[in-house]
Write a structure and sequence with these properties.
Layout lengths: L1 E3 L5 E4 L5 H14 L8 H9 L3 E7 L5 E12 L2 E11 L8 H15 L4 E3 L7 H9 L16
Amino acid sequence: MNAKGARGVSVEAVLTADPELYRAVVRLLPQLSGSAAPPTAYDLETIIESPATTLFVARDREAQIVGMLTLAVFKAPTGVRAWIEDVVVDAALRRQGVGGALVEAALVTARRAEARTVDLTSRPDRADANRLYEDLGFERRETNVYRLTLR
């Protein structure tokens, strides 16, 4: 899938883990999380090859990777579900439609997979991201999110 977004940004599902992708992920990931270690090249290959995950990247007019998003689609007893993770747009290009283009591409894929729902989480301090998700039709749910760190 390759779609044109705002301001000449294109979004595509990644098919190959190449050095360009690796460098982009290493550059973008610290803008999302200060505690996550960068994935290895093997980790990226595993993500891309998994039938449950799709890694999307956004490219600017110069074809540079400026954002990414991971979509997981899985079957549960209640039906097909989808989950969006690790949405990050380069700080220099935020509020220009890149994040929206990434999410829209993920939603197309989730609909094709006949997912009943698409979920995501976003920290409260990420005001722009939260506003984007609401603008795209996501509804804030009153629920408890629990995490057990295994490592």
